[in-house]
Design a protein that fits this description.
globular, DNA polymerase, domain 1, about 350 residues, binds iron/sulfur cluster, TIM Barrel, two-stranded parallel ribbon, alpha/beta, 10-stranded mixed sheet
Length: about 350
């Protein structure tokens, strides 16, 4: 009989299960306490549960946590990358980034990715499978342990397109933010997407308080389709409309991410086009220097051009930041995750 990982369930789902087996509802909270407060690794360790409940749990569930295969630390900035092996031997990576008091975990949501962005190492792996809810949560548990509970931010921006695994990610967010779970505020979580329009609208209509970032790259539809083939499914026009809808429904600002490539999307006209296209959206923009780790034919925009791009945006009243490059020496920077065991 198939056994299911207890880390895959929200508190409400466990309460439902307790009702199905005629156990008290509060037992679900006790189980959450063992999982997320005590961090136990076996159902037998749940000492305050009656023996018959332990038996019923073991007939249905197990506790499965990914194994840390490798830990690599940047000599430049302390960025630390973890290579994790999942129960089916699939490999994923997550990354801890340090910036003074701010400690951010970059979380993976899929094994590989099927979106095919031409500038991204993960794309070369292709899509293998979605991560289960527990496999997403486990990355956060690992980071909390490694930082002595000092983790301040979570970005779902590692391997995979988070909104193509929305069912499992949504549940993971509920458990991570549940006060009986990891009790980590949703306002400190950011989901980064290339623009899966129906799910952006779903998030806008939900009660979630997470932040949303959209990887824009360019506001030229044709060029975007060339760099990010998924743009053919959801066009820029639709994505911008979804961003406006998100603003209206949540009253929250969107972050657009714009990776700067030399001579592709980094000139003054590109900045002016961006301002014009996004004129009805409430947003800030993160300009990301490209990490030229792949033989993709792209290279990093020159510093002077990046600064000029930022200056144009700021002069039009837009909050524009240039992201600090982190973890490039250990292939942990944006677009570099490839879950390579070597
Ligand atoms: S950039 Fe994101 S969506 Fe695009 S291929 Fe890489 S992981 Fe997938």
């Amino acid at each position: 009989m198939t056994l299911y990982n207890l880390y895959n369930y929200t508190l409400d789902e466990l309460i439902d299960f307790m009702q199905q087996i005629k156990a008290e509802r509060y037992r679900a909270k006790q189980i959450f306490g063992w999982l997320y407060d005590k961090g136990i690794t076996s159902i037998d360790e749940m000492k305050n549960l009656p023996k018959d409940l332990i038996k019923k749990l073991k007939e249905r569930f197990l506790i499965s946590i990914p194994e840390v295969k490798k830990e690599t630390k940047s000599k430049i900035d302390g960025t630390t990358k973890y290579l994790l092996r999942l129960k089916d031997d699939a490999l994923i990576e997550c990354v801890l980034l340090f910036d003074n008091e701010r400690i951010t975990l970059c979380v993976s949501t899929q094994v590989g990715c099927g979106c095919g962005c031409r500038f991204c190492s993960t794309a070369l792996l292709g899509f293998k499978r979605n991560l289960e809810t527990g496999e997403i949560i486990s990355q956060v548990m690992l980071a909390r342990k490694k930082t002595n509970n000092k983790l301040t931010n979570i970005v779902f921006m590692g391997m995979g397109e988070p909104l193509l695994n929305w069912k499992n990610l949504n549940k993971a967010i509920l458990v991570i933010s549940d006060k009986n779970g990891l009790n980590f505020s949703q306002t400190r979580m950011t989901i980064s997407t290339i623009g899966i329009v129906p799910v952006i609208k779903q998030i806008a209509d939900s009660d979630l308080k997470v932040n949303l970032a959209i990887s824009l790259i360019t506001v030229k539809d044709e060029l975007r389709s060339e760099l990010m083939p998924f743009n053919k499914k959801y066009s820029l026009k639709e994505i911008i409309k979804a961003a406006e809808y998100y603003n209206k429904k949540t009253k929250k600002q969107i972050t657009f991410e714009y990776v700067l490539f030399k001579n592709i999307n980094d000139n003054e006209q590109d900045a002016m086009d961006l301002i014009e296209k996004l004129k009805d959206v409430d947003y800030k923009i993160n300009l990301i220097p490209y990490n030229s780790s792949l033989n993709t034919g792209f290279s990093k925009s020159e510093n002077e051009k990046m600064l000029n791009f930022q200056k144009i945006l700021i002069s039009h009243g837009i909050k524009a930041f240039i992201r600090k490059e982190k973890g490039a020496d250990i292939k942990a920077a944006c677009g570099q995750l490839a879950a390579n065991i070597n």
